[in-house]
């Protein structure tokens, strides 16, 4: 049994509120640790310390800040195994998947090693007689990140790397379900040379989140989690005058055209549907074959592949395909939704509700579940299940399949499998979804592009990481400067063009 407090002013400290949450081992159902839940006054004290530390950090030149990122990247690589183990122990995902979680965060750190070039300003020489204009990108001050359980390394790294390299201090409020990795990340940042107080981890629940939203010193909030909470945080943060970018849930569709390579499409659906037990915001949860022949060809290939999937604890080794869900409540909710699918008339071709694993009877496992003949009015279509459940919605034509995808309220990711470049281009151009895969099931963009959904999957106007992150974490100041050589007319009283 271990205890996790907060990371304040360069060290781990115990919580003072007297409130804690249990940290479960999802494979066994046992409580393995406790995490402190911060009070408003603890959060406010952490923000005050961060504000004091930010002054020096913001004045540090960008290249020196980037060198901290270089060292940090090196340390993440050094500790990759340790980070992955801690991540799997609390989240439940397999070790290779946990390493992927760290790796896709590290890639954003790598881009931030070149942050100075993204922080350069703009300059207009001789915008008027003797007049020059220049725009600077300056840090906001103290910013906050609020992150979900499903990528406890990647998403904190997506936020902290651009925020810190742009000269801000950051308060990170990670998920209370798997808080170990963010604490380890804070220690690595300090080892990399980040001054004390510039990055603080404050663990907590709604009380800490609300304290962030109401603290006047916090200038911006970056959130990732479910849609109702994203919408709540966006509304309250912006009402309090903060910048906010809040990324929410998803229901990602993959269209399979009759000319697609069916084996490759089936492999892609199994990996993208069941990897990480479906607990990915970019998981494919809806397969949309065009035409009954395509649907039959897929069913024939999917069922044997699904039956072969190996589900187990991360300790069972690399040949496990996916692990348990994160909590008992998540498991029960997913099983309840599967039952609703059966009751509402979908055809269940693989049923994971009664999955049992000897020695892990109390773990939060759900076996792979596959429904055919799902219709849009059913709860398994309407809800983000966030579990190992793949639904197939048959459509007669490409236009019908496109319409289904576009009518869905979520717009995080989508994919099309086809051999026809013209169809693929049409899809990429017309679909109202933020990230599109062409014969590529999980199109999470590389770290020098940006990540963001549309519709109910994101609130705010800038994406995560890449150039957008530097726009989000800086503000522009524009200077108009004049030097008086040869201009001696005296005062000017009219607002006028410079020329
Ligand atoms: P969640 O919304 O329950 O929690 C996210 C964060 O909000 C946590 O830090 C949590 O402590 C906090 N929180 C929870 N309830 C709150 C409340 N009532 N008031 C204030 N704060 C609250 O999400 P989760 O279960 O941790 O993560 C899964 C969700 O995240 C899924 O919906 C998934 O699609 C989404 N997600 C989205 C993206 C994306 O980039 N769009 C990426 C990963 C996950």
Task: Give me a quick take on this structure.
The protein is an alpha/beta fold and 499 residues long. It contains 16 helices and 23 strands.
Helices and strands in order:
Elements: E1 2-4, E2 6-8, E3 11-13, E4 20-25, E5 30-36, H1 40-59, H2 62-78, H3 80-91, H4 95-112, H5 115-118, E6 122-128, E7 131-139, E8 142-146, H6 154-165, E9 169-173, H7 180-191, E10 199-201, H8 206-214, E11 218-224, H9 227-239, E12 243-247, E13 252-256, H10 262-274, E14 284-289, H11 292-307, H12 328-343, E15 347-350, E16 369-372, H13 379-382, E17 389-392, H14 398-407, E18 410-411, E19 413-417, H15 421-430, E20 435-438, E21 454-455, E22 458-459, H16 466-472, E23 474-482
Parallel strand pairs: 1-5, 8-9, 8-11, 9-10, 11-12, 13-14, 13-19, 14-17, 16-17, 19-20
Antiparallel strand pairs: 2-3, 4-5, 6-7, 7-23, 12-22, 15-16, 18-21
Residues 146-151, 173, 175-176, 205-206, 209, 224-226, 229, 247-250, 281, 384, 386, 412, 453, 457 line the site of nicotinamide-adenine-dinucleotide.
């Amino acid at each position: 049994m271990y205890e996790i407090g907060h990371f304040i002013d360069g060290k781990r400290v115990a919580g003072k509120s007297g409130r804690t949450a249990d940290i479960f081992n999802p494979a066994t159902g046992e409580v393995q640790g406790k995490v402190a839940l911060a009070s408003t006054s603890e959060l406010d004290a952490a923000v005050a310390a961060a504000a004091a530390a930010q002054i020096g950090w913001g004045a540090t030149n960008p290249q020196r800040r980037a060198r901290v990122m270089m060292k940090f990247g090196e340390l993440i690589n050094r500790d990759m195994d340790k980070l992955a183990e801690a991540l799997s122990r609390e989240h439940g995902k397999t070790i290779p998947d946990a390493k992927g979680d760290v790796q896709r965060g590290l890639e954003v750190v790598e881009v931030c090693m070149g942050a100075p070039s993204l922080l350069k300003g703009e300059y207009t020489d001789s915008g008027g007689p003797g007049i020059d204009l220049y725009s600077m990108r300056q840090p906001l001050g103290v910013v906050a990140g609020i992150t979900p359980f499903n990528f406890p390394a990647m998403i904190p790294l997506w936020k902290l790397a651009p925020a810190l390299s742009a000269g801000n201090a950051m308060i990170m409020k990670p998920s209370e379900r798997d808080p170990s990795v963010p604490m380890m990340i804070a220690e690595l940042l300090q080892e990399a040379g980040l001054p004390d107080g510039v990055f603080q981890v404050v663990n907590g629940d709604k009380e800490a989140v609300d304290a962030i939203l109401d603290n006047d010193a916090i200038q911006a909030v970056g959130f990732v989690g479910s849609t109702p909470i994203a919408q709540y945080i966006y509304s309250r943060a912006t009402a309090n005058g903060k910048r906010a970018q809040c990324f929410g849930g998803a229901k990602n569709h993959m269209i399979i055209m009759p000319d697609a390579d069916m084996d490759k499409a089936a492999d892609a659906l199994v990996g993208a549907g069941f990897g990480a037990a479906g607990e990915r915001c970019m998981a494919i949860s809806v397969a949309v074959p065009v035409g009954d022949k395509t649907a039959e060809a897929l069913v024939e290939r999917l069922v044997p592949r699904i039956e072969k999937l190996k589900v187990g604890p991360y300790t069972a080794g690399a040949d496990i395909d996916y692990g348990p869900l994160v909590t008992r409540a998540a498991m029960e909710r997913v099983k309840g939704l599967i039952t609703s699918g059966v009751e509402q008339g979908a055809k269940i071709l693989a049923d994971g509700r009664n999955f049992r694993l000897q020695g892990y009877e109390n773990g939060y496992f759900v076996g792979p579940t596959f429904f055919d003949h799902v219709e849009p009015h059913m709860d398994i279509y309407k809800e983000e299940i966030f579990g190992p459940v793949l639904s197939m919605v048959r459509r007669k034509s490409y236009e019908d399949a496109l319409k289904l995808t576009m009518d869905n309220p979520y717009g995080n990711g989508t994919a099309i499998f086809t051999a026809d470049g013209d169809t693929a281009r049409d899809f990429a151009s017309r679909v109202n979804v933020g990230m599109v895969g062409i014969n590529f099931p999980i199109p999470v963009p590389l770290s020098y592009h940006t990540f963001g959904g549309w519709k109910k999957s994101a609130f705010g106007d800038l994406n995560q990481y890449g150039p957008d992150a530097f726009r989000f974490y800086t503000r522009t100041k524009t200077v108009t400067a004049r030097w008086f050589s040869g201009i001696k007319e005296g005062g000017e009283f009219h607002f006028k063009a410079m020329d």
